Input
Amino acid sequence: MDKFKVLVSSFSFGKISNEPENLLKRNKCELVYDRGPFSDDELARIIGDYFAIIAGEDEIGLQTLRKANKLRIIAKHGIGLDKINIPEATKRRIVVTRALGANEETVADYTFALILGIARGLVPASISLGKGLWEGPKYTGIEIYEKVLGIVGLGSIGKKVAKRARGFGMEVLYYDVVRSEHFERKWSVKFVDLQTLVQLSDFVTVHVPLIPSTENLIGYNQLQKMKRTAYLINTARGSIVNEDDLYRALEKGLLAGAAIDTYSKEPPEKNFPLFTLPNVLATPHIGGYTVEASMRTGMIVAEEIIRVAKGDSPQFSVNWEEIQAKGN
Output
């Protein structure tokens, strides 16, 4: 029997453990490693013979899908699908899956790493000490105890952030297009509109997906309403926060600082303006990277490809039901 040819373009798949790779190989999959991320044009030139792609931050658009004559599944090694043309994939009966739930705990943890890191000036203090300086009082920070945390998007990750915040003794506000009244009562969190959230919060943390309605959701109008002592945290998607507006607001002192892990273009240009500001804590989109999350993500990806190869229903597809409803 012919093997199922799988393109591995994700730069992180298989880096932590070979168990997902071995699972695929045991199930008649031939893995070809060609690490991305690729543009749509680049991927279109190599996609032709593959049954599956394990995608990272690749752009999978119309050019690629037109050339993907044998492709049956796009398995995202992560959860963000904003770079995949899902309607076109669905039209061509190509299943799109993601590793839903694999990194929720990891990203929630990392959100608090950024909150604590920027509140206490951990990075500049460490750099200062490495230079042989002893400047403790210079890095006097603020407590997060009894501060107000505003969560933009109370989905799975947002809820986990809220639980951690309550453990730190923080007051929690949230904004979402859908209320979670049971969660509000159980965890003593309060639903407010977005403008109220940015006005009242000491820390604003973003946890919504990037879709047309959330692009530039946080812009100058919201930033100028924040407390001058407040901080913005973004571990979601870079384009949810207008980066030019954020730079302008930080430069004017309209908020105290920002901790960002995601960017509208990744990697950003070397002269990216936000990197020049002393009140910005920036990291290279590592919020989802832990040993545990990488292992879970890899296994979900492998299992989804195997399900589709066997003709079974994938567990974490965003378009399987629509494909089945359209029939052959």
Remarks:
- Residues 291-309 form the longest helix (19 residues).
- The domain at 104-282 is CATH 3.40.50.720 (Rossmann fold).
- The longest strand covers residues 4-8.
